[in-house]
Structures are given as C-alpha cells and as structure tokens.
Specification:
This protein is mainly beta. It has one domain: CheA-289, Domain 4 (OB fold (Dihydrolipoamide Acetyltransferase, E2P)), CATH 2.40.50. About 10% of the residues lie in helices and about 40% in strands.
Amino acid sequence: MNEGTLGSARLLVFRVGTLACAAEVDLVREILPRLPTTRIPGAPSVVAGLVNVRGTLVTVVEGWRALGQLPPPPANGLPTAAQESQGSTIILELGSGESGGAAKSTDADDGAHKLIGFTVDEVLDMLAAGDTTLEGRQGLPGVDPTLVRAVGRRKGELIIVLDVAALLGPILTT
C-alpha cells in the first residue's frame, strides 16, 4: 500500500511513549494485555522475547525500542516487573510478500503469514484513514522516515502511520 491508497485503510491507533502511532487493521490479528516474555539468548535488545499465544510461539518486539524512543517512566513507583506488565501486546500478522520473520506460523496459513508481537503503552482508537488528514512523512521529528507510511492529524494530534514490514522485518531477521 502506498500513500495514495492509504485513504481507504482502517487504522488501529496506539501510543508508544509520547508518540501516537497507527497500523493497518488488516495486519492486526488480536490485541492482548501485555504478556510476560521468555528472553531469547543472543537476541537484540529490541526483542523482548517469546510468548505462547494458544500454542503458537510469537516473537515480541519492544515498541519503544523499535521506534527509538525513551524507556517508559516508572509507573506509580511500581517495581520493574510490574511496569513491564503495563500496556498491551498487539499481535500483527505479516504476509509472505512482506519482509520480516517471526516465530512459528499457524498451520492454517501454511507458512504464508508470520505472527509478531509489538508492545504498546495504550491502544487508543480505530479509525478510517479518511477520517484523518494525511500528510507526507518528510520532516517527522524523532522517527526514522523510512519506517513511516504517512503522518496524519486527528483532532489536532499527530498520528504516525507505521510501515510495519519496514519496522519489524530487519529486527526479526537479525
């Protein structure tokens, strides 16, 4: 999908740190409470670890690290383990035509799709791209423009429409 066809897309809007981001709803398989992960030895720090989602192992990427943001501040004096349970894990499904890899795929998709978890601080809304004014991705402060499909404004708030394959593909192939 390019910026020209983004107008008809449905978007899931979520917050990662101070950024309001969005991903196409068609890529979202489900939204779960933040799941505890099992660390993968030797994996880059952006990879939080693995989770078991109904018998399928899914690699989970730490959203704030993937987007180059600051770590979340301590929440109400909670210990680190309790802080890490805050937020949500969005399970994304990338097709074989997109770059990226993940843990085991489901039997039903014959390996054509990969599941990837992406941690976010808060899921905000679902909207149609037509409900927001989309702009080019140039001059976006603090985010690599190659990871962005478009920038939108909704009710005065800046929303970054992420290129999920460009964001997660290189992380999971390392």
